[in-house]
Amino acid sequence: MSLYSILIFLHSIIRWLLLLGLLWSIFVAIRGYFSGLAFSKSHNALRHWTATMSHFQLMVGFTLYTQSPLVQYFFTNAKSATLTDISFFSIIHGSLMLTAIALITIGSALAKRKTDSRDKFKTVAIFYSIALIIILIAIPWPFSPLAQRPYIRLF
Ligand code: HEM
After folding, report:
1. Scanning 6, 8, 107, 133, which has the fewest C-beta atoms within 10 Å of its C-beta?
2. Quick check: CB of 14 below 6 Å from ligand 1?
3. What separation in Å is there between the alpha carbon of 11 and the centre of ligand 1?
4. Mean pLDDT rounded to a whole number for the chain
5. Nearest residue by C-alpha to atom 20 in ligand 1
6. Confidence band (pLDDT; 50, 70, 90) for 155?
7. Ligand 1 center to residue 56 CA distance, Å?
8. Are residues 57 and 21 in contact, defined by beta-carbon separation less than 8 angstroms?
């Protein structure tokens, strides 16, 4: 079992945990905003752990970037690369995901600093929703027109 296969496995699994965290955070934030709830400790923990999950995925993604034969091929044959899996993973995927994770980080930090519960819910709802849309576009779903990978990766 190579480092590369372990990283791909982790990267594929964490995708689902992060998507669940984002969906749950957004749902809870919208409900909290419209129901006038107080931003509780559990809301705060959800905000925090979802952002942490995205940072973990970022670290695995960066390490994967240094190990992936696709990316290595891109950098040795960049001139001949067209929009294939190779250029998708070497340029588009990482850039979009980095943007999404930056939005999650900024949204989480801003929400933490707000004092009013409604403002906190609103900030999480807006930043996490935009990040989720970008992530959904950049994931190589089996039906994506950009690049395709399985829903679940086993060793
Ligand atoms: C929200 C963040 C991210 C999500 C949800 C995500 C999701 C995924 C998924 C589902 C795959 C396919 C895994 C498989 O083959 O089963 C993948 C592949 C890959 N990701 Fe990410 N990714 C994220 C961030 C990043 C970042 C920041 C980088 C690095 C800059 C990165 C680099 C890669 C590379 C290099 C591959 C393909 C490797 C290969 O096939 O050789 N990812 N990603």
Report:
1. 133
2. no
3. 6
4. 95
5. 61
6. low
7. 12
8. no
Written as one string, the DSSP assignment of 127-150 is: HHHHHHHHHHHHS--TT-SS----
Does the CB atom of residue 86 touch ligand 1 within 6 A?
no
The pair of three-digit structure tokens given for residue 80, joined into one six-digit string? 């001949």
**Mean of pLDDT values over 47-55:** 98
Say yes or no: CB of residue 107 within 6 Å of ligand 1.
Answer: no
CA dihedral 20, 135, 13, 93 (to 10 degrees): -170
The token pair that represents 2 in the structure block: 């190579």
Q: Are 150 and 15 in contact (CB under 8 A)?
A: no
Residue 84 has pLDDT above 90, yes or no: no
